[in-house]
Amino acid sequence: MADIAKLADALDAAVRDARAIPKLTERDPFDVATAYLVQREVIDRRKARGERLAGVKMGFTSRAKMVQMGVDDVIWGLLTDAMVVESTVDASALIHPRIEPEIAFLIGREVRSPADAGAAVAGVAVGFEVLDSRYEDFKFTLPDVIADNASAAGFGFGSWHPPRDLANVGLIMEIDGRVAQTGSSAAILGDPWRSLRAAARLAQEAGIALEPGHVVLAGAATAAVPLPAGAHVRVTGAGLGSVEVTTR
Ligand code: OOG
Q1: Looking at residues 66-91, what average pLDDT do you find?
Q2: DSSP sequence for 195-221
Q3: Which pairing describes strands 241-247 and 88-89: parallel, antiparallel, or unpaired?
Q4: Where are the alpha helices (DSSP H) in 100-206?
Q5: Model confidence pLDDT, tens digit, residues 113-127
Q6: ipTM tops 0.90
Q7: Taking a C-beta distance cutoff of 8 angstroms, is the pair 113, 199 a contact?
Q8: Cβ contacts of residue 233 below 8 Å, gap of 6+?
Q9: Is any ligand 1 atom within 6 A of the Cβ of residue 150?
Q10: Locate the Fumarylacetoacetase-like C-terminal domain: which residues (predicted)?
Q11: Alpha carbon of 109 to ligand 1 centroid (Å)
Q12: What is the pTM of this model?
């Protein structure tokens, strides 16, 4: 039987020391259900240190990401307020950060069921996610990446817009003025609203309440790119404006 506390300790220490660790399944294989228990335990530790749940993120909702990372199932992770990026990211506090464009949803009232999730959304925005796998070489199996909270390290979003059709929003991610990735929100499960409903379903199954003020990241529309120190990144979504971040 996997030792949840021990696995959570290893991941928690990797975040705090900004040091990569070997894949946890290498020594001690575990399944997806166990991986989610580890994820929960890691977040519980962060909460015990004063962090609050700020939302959830969906992962591997696009082909580009599945192919990039060699996995084939949708996953999710938990976001805390300490992961919110206002305008700068300290890359030196991370292991090997990457960034990817996102569509974000702002929850306006408690989500009672997956079917109710759309009506509970108060706003939509273009966003980004900073990923930082705690594993060596950014390589993992599905249970490893789930235990590692879906590589979540930080996230940001532009200004909120009224809920709208998001089936084909053009997304551009520029790094230092050069286009690094382009894509369409259609890459996110065909429509990011589908990803929102999937998040609501997973939250319900996990007994986690999606509450007013929480943010749901629908998942990247493109592959992620390395995020070096001293970079300036801008992600623009057609009709949604843009969001910028610099690294130091
Ligand atoms: C895991 C996180 C995947 C996405 O948007 O697909 C993800 C990773 O690639 O490290 O967040």
Answers
A1: 93
A2: HHHHHHHHHHHHT----TT-EEE---S
A3: parallel
A4: 142-147, 192-206
A5: 999 999 999 999 999
A6: yes
A7: no
A8: 99, 128, 173, 174, 175, 180, 227, 244, 245, 246, 247
A9: yes
A10: 96-246
A11: 27
A12: 0.97
Helix, strand, coil distribution of the chain in percent, nearest 5:
35, 30, 35
The most distant pair of C-alpha atoms in the chain lies apart, rounded to whole Å, by 50
Residue nearest to atom 4 of ligand 1 (CA): 59
Domains and their CATH numbers in the chain: 4-247 (3.90.850.10)
Expressed in angstroms and rounded, the spacing between residue 150 Cα and the centre of ligand 1 is 6
Helical axes 32-48 vs 4-17, angle rounded to 10° = 60
Regarding the beta carbon of 158 and ligand 1, being less than 6 Å apart is answered: no
Q: Do 101 and 183 meet the contact criterion of CB atoms below 8 Å apart?
A: yes
CA angle, 108 then 59 then 3, to 5° = 105
> Residue whose CA is closest, atom 9 of ligand 1?
69
| Count of Cβ atoms closer than 10 Å to residue 176 Cβ | 12
Q: What would the two tokens of residue 243 be?
A: 């969001």
